[in-house]
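The data are quoted verbatim for completeness:
=====
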Amino acid sequence: MTSQEGTRATGGAGAGGQIRRLVLHGATGAVTRCRDFTATALTDWGWLPSATDEDQERADDVLLLVSEVVTNACLHAGGPQELVLRHGDGLLRVEVSDPSPEHPRQGLPRSPALPGGHGLMVLDRLATAWGSVAKPDGSPGKVVWLEVSRPSPPPWLRPRPADPA
């Protein structure tokens, strides 16, 4: 798991995948809206409902990660502007843009007993990779991204059980 400031991880969520965008400029309830938007996308892409406990844990991880990056944008970066989900080849890429040029930096380790300050630790533990880049269009701000791999194929690609003869 890596934090890569200024670089983009390569993954299957690019060409040939599906992309969903949620514009958030000035929206209230951004965290809830983003979680609901992501849950709908995960359902459409076959992550939910989950076939196994591992698949359910991964979908829950995605929703927690979306909550974390959107909350961080709300608390530290002037609010989220857009959520982008890119899905393809067993990989989900989540991107949250905000107006702040400051990239996330992990601070000193904190006691798990203390509230707050654990968002980047959650990203490190649950995301396959994460980082931040300047906005690609050159406008002020950045995009915080994370990638999560899918533990098993969607239901329509799973092998069917053999019919007993």
In short: The CA atoms of residues 19 and 126 lie 22 Å apart. The chain has three helices and six strands. The radius of gyration is 17 Å.
